[in-house]
């Protein structure tokens, strides 16, 4: 089950949970309401035949799929993790399905505070285009395997913060304002 909480910033190891004292949990419903991040649980065993997974791909028009295996057995492991931890956004939704290992996605809420989301095998997370975020492994693992879904030919271009004038960021901010007026 995906767990989320407000991140306690410090210089400690980024692989630690960084929970505030006392912890300030964020429910999956509040996570979606505050950030637009969506989370699903999909059994990783034979996931491609899973009805939830297939329905998501069809409804969201995800035509392309690949996988990434971030492991300490690769020589570029440390550099990859440094790149993933730089705060950035993407022009498209970032859809990641964890089929092995675990880690953290950190996302910014409407007040620019970090929310830490712990993902593990079976968790599928969708970060909306334009949301500032970053990724770190947790202390349980030295690897994570993620399936990535795309609507078009796979492109993974990070735009480091500040990218406040990027069209995806402007659209994200506008969509969040519309959500606030609907409430």
From TrEMBL:
It is found in: Cytoplasm; Nucleus. Fe(2+) binds at residues 88, 90, 94, 133. It catalyses: 1,2-dihydroxy-5-(methylsulfanyl)pent-1-en-3-one + O2 = 3-(methylsulfanyl)propanoate + CO + formate + 2 H(+); 1,2-dihydroxy-5-(methylsulfanyl)pent-1-en-3-one + O2 = 4-methylsulfanyl-2-oxobutanoate + formate + 2 H(+). InterPro entries: ARD, ARD_euk, RmlC-like_jellyroll, RmlC_Cupin_sf. One of its GO terms (biological process) is L-methionine salvage from methylthioadenosine. Its cofactor is Fe(2+); Ni(2+). Its EC number is 1.13.11.54, 1.13.11.53. It is an enzyme of class 1 (oxidoreductase). Ni(2+) binds at residues 88, 90, 94, 133. It comes from the Eukaryota. Binds either 1 Fe or Ni cation per monomer. Iron-binding promotes an acireductone dioxygenase reaction producing 2-keto-4-methylthiobutyrate, while nickel-binding promotes an acireductone dioxygenase reaction producing 3-(methylsulfanyl)propanoate. Pathway: Amino-acid biosynthesis; L-methionine biosynthesis via salvage pathway; L-methionine from S-methyl-5-thio-alpha-D-ribose 1-phosphate: step 5/6. Keywords: Amino-acid biosynthesis, Cytoplasm, Dioxygenase, Iron, Metal-binding, Methionine biosynthesis, Nickel, Nucleus, Oxidoreductase. One of its GO terms (molecular function) is acireductone dioxygenase [iron(II)-requiring] activity. The keyword Oxidoreductase applies. GO terms for cellular component: cytoplasm; nucleus. Catalyzes 2 different reactions between oxygen and the acireductone 1,2-dihydroxy-3-keto-5-methylthiopentene (DHK-MTPene) depending upon the metal bound in the active site. Fe-containing acireductone dioxygenase (Fe-ARD) produces formate and 2-keto-4-methylthiobutyrate (KMTB), the alpha-ketoacid precursor of methionine in the methionine recycle pathway. Ni-containing acireductone dioxygenase (Ni-ARD) produces methylthiopropionate, carbon monoxide and formate, and does not lie on the methionine recycle pathway. Belongs to the acireductone dioxygenase (ARD) family. This is Acireductone dioxygenase. The lineage of its organism: Eukaryota, Metazoa, Spiralia, Lophotrochozoa, Annelida.
């Amino acid at each position: 089950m995906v767990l989320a909480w407000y991140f306690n910033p410090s210089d400690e190891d980024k692989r630690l949970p960084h929970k505030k004292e006392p912890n300030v949990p964020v429910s999956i419903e509040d996570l979606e309401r505050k950030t637009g991040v969506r989370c699903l649980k999909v059994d990783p065993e034979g996931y491609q035949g899973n009805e939830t997974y297939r329905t998501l791909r069809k409804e969201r028009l995800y035509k392309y799929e690949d996988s990434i295996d971030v492991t300490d057995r690769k020589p570029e492991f440390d550099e990859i993790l440094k790149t993933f931890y730089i705060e950035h956004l993407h022009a498209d939704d970032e859809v990641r399905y964890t089929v092995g290992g675990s880690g953290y996605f950190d996302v910014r809420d409407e007040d620019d505070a970090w929310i830490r989301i712990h993902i593990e095998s079976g968790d599928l997370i969708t970060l909306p285009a334009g949301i500032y975020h970053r990724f770190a492994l947790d202390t349980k693992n030295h690897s994570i395997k993620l399936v990535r879904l795309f609507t078009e030919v796979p492109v993974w271009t990070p735009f480091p913060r500040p990218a406040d004038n990027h069209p995806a960021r402007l659209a994200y901010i506008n969509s969040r304002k519309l959500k606030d007026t609907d409430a």
